[in-house]
Specification:
Chain lengths: 316, 309
């Protein structure tokens, strides 16, 4: 008797209802989008192992082009560029990760200590502006500053009796410029994330600390920073997960694709784009393949670590 | 950000930084804030500076020899700029509406606990977050297979859905909409379409606004899709136009040749430098004016993403 009821219950659960059909129809357009724009490219990655020709229909090209095994990868890793590019990608990212945590945390704490709430809101809004500018616009602004004959910086340098610098031809300045611009563009965004946590801290902690005679510095050191620790760790791990990806706009647009800056401004994304545009598909697809694979591994391991620390914050 | 009391308690007044420190911090933030808005000022002042002055002295942070030539040039002869403005507006509007629809429907469907394909579709949404096909194969799928080269859809479709937004939607529907509400609609005989469009969407305005704004600013600011897929100058968005003007300011004259003047003459008389910055102003000004009003929604979206809840 009882097993009969259970069985009918189970059957009921397996039974496909009218709602299921409707929900499936509702999700269908987005599902098709995912197939076309996310999953087809994943299968398209096999062109990294093929001698792919650009002309004609994609599917028949993929099927008909000959397998070349790891030739494209050999070609990629035998070039000197591979190591320069790997160095740039990881090097810049390490600096961006460190500065991208230290500075926003510092400024978020500082801005939360300002006496005037109104003023702090105004500064916050102003510092959020670069986040909303596209790299094309930033590149135009950069040109206004760095242009050789008309640039604001050179006018200033000549004004104080220096020689004008041909900025777009001198690689030694660019690591600093690129780091500065990256921080400049993301500082408002970072600040907002940490500030949201700071304003969420229960004020009774601070009240208790004041009664115990703690100074502002001690309150920051022993209440604010520990409360921020979890968010900082999460942001750190998430950005480590994306260490093989860079902001294409920063490295391509802002440097105006200057050849003199090749060694300091070429990252994986720039390399893939340039080779795609110059139709060296073999190397481009190999580089994109390596980036996707390494990216997947780092993201999954970062997520695994997050899960160990705090399972609530993990993506999966 | 959220809780800012309008009054300050006595304890709060007692427990604050000394006036000296406050003044120092204020100074630092004033400088930082200025550094962050300087670009808009520079671009605006160049666009308003007289062309011959720029040619002689160069760019300057503050407008010196004021002139509206660039803007009157755009108004008179800027067919190309006006068309680019049209493309940008079209892509932003259509893309945002399409993106919001695709994102929220999927978010709603995978938020229904009893739905049979829930797990399957959740994986469909999740996998692209950790793994993607990369630029090269996406490019070939989009151009050779889907035929999006030199089509305005190439600017719209690839950016319409992001798994991140779908997850935000799913979390929102799951946590704020009571199951009872949906069940009662089901009992009353409403189809899932009806439930979604006339019950769920109207009470989900905060998440619609958050996602809509991210999409809207994303489309307006996008230049990469144009760089990849658009060669036809008639389909240039404002961003793509500015991009090509940065490498060749003469391009602006190309479309005006039919006006009866020779190309060389046009290039010589055109306010190249200031017109190019005027295009940048067309891009930046709407954004700079709009975002302070919507900051709340961006902050919600960003903090959900980073801190999750």
């Amino acid at each position: 008797m009882s097993t009969k009821i259970e069985r009918s219950k189970i059957r009921k659960r397996i039974h496909w209802r009218k709602q299921d059909t409707e929900l499936t129809l509702l999700a269908l357009p987005t599902f098709i989008w995912y197939i076309l724009f996310s999953f087809l490219p994943m299968f398209g990655m096999i062109i990294a192992f093929k001698n792919f020709k650009i002309s004609g229909n994609f599917i028949s090209n993929v099927l008909n082009s000959s397998w070349v095994g790891f030739k494209n990868f050999e070609f990629l890793f035998k070039s000197n560029d591979a190591w320069i590019i790997l160095r740039n990608t990881i090097g810049y990212n390490i600096i961006f990760i460190i500065l991208g945590i230290v500075l926003p945390v510092m400024f978020a704490i500082m801005i939360s200590l300002l006496h005037s709430r109104k003023a702090s809101k105004v500064y916050q809004t102003m510092m959020f502006l670069p986040y909303f500018l596209s790299w094309v616009v930033v590149s135009a602004v950069g040109w206004a500053f760095f242009s050789f004959d008309k640039g604001i910086l050179n006018q200033f340098l000549v004004g104080i009796g220096h020689d004008a610098v041909n900025w777009y031809m001198e690689p030694q300045y660019w690591p600093y410029i690129l780091i500065f611009l990256n921080i400049w563009k993301s500082i408002g965004y970072g600040m907002i994330i940490y500030l949201a946590t700071i304003t969420g801290i229960d004020s009774t902690y601070y009240e208790a600390a004041v009664i115990d005679g703690a100074s502002i510095w001690q309150q920051t050191r022993f209440i604010t920073l520990p409360m921020l620790k979890m968010v900082i760790v999460m942001m750190f791990i998430l950005s480590v997960g994306r260490i093989f990806y860079t902001d294409f706009g920063l490295f391509y647009q802002v440097t105006r694709d200057s050849n003199s800056l090749y060694n300091v401004a070429t990252t994986v994304d720039v390399l893939v784009y340039k080779q795609l545009k110059t139709a060296t598909v073999g190397m481009a697809s190999a580089a994109a393949f390596v980036q996707s694979m390494l990216g997947c591994i780092t993201i999954l391991s970062a997520n695994w670590i997050v899960k160990k620390i705090d399972s609530e914050s993990a993506m999966i | 950000m959220a809780k800012t009391p309008t009054y300050q308690s006595g304890l709060e007044k007692f427990n604050r930084t000394s006036n000296g420190i406050n003044a120092l911090f204020t100074l630092i933030f004033i400088l930082l804030a200025i550094a962050c808005v300087v670009p808009v000022i520079v671009v605006l002042s160049i666009s308003l500076t007289d062309e011959s002055y720029i040619r002689e002295t160069g760019y300057s942070i503050f407008p010196t020899a004021l002139s509206g030539d660039a803007y009157s040039y755009i108004a008179k002869q800027g067919t190309m700029i006006l068309r680019a403005l049209g493309v940008s507006l079209l892509v932003t509007v259509v893309g945002t509406i399409l993106g919001v629809l695709l994102t929220t429907t999927m978010g709603y469907v995978i938020s229904r606990p009893a739905y049979k394909l829930k797990n399957f579709l959740t994986w469909v949404v999740f996998i692209p977050m950790v793994f993607n096909g990369g630029l090269v194969s996406s490019y070939f799928i989009n151009t050779n297979f889907l035929g999006l080269k030199n089509s305005v859809w190439a600017l719209i479709l690839p950016l319409a859905v992001s798994s991140f937004n779908v997850i935000i939607c799913k979390t929102f529907f799951r946590s704020t909409i009571p199951d009872g509400l949906i069940e009662s609609a089901e009992i009353d005989g409403a189809s899932q379409f009806r439930t979604f469009f006339s019950i769920i969407l109207p009470i989900s305005l905060p998440v619609l606004a958050t996602i809509g704004l991210f999409l809207c600013f994303g489309y307006w600011n996008d230049w990469f899709q144009s760089m990849l897929y658009i060669d036809n100058q008639n389909l240039y968005s404002l961003q793509a136009l500015l991009n090509s003007l940065m490498s060749n300011a003469d391009a602006l004259a190309r479309n005006s040749i039919s006006m009866g003047i020779s190309f060389a003459e046009l290039v010589a008389t055109m306010p190249k430098e200031s017109a190019r910055m005027a295009v940048a102003i067309l891009i930046v000004l709407p954004v700079a004016c709009a975002y302070p009003f919507f900051q709340r929604y961006f902050i919600t979206g960003l903090t959900i993403g980073a801190v999750k809840g």
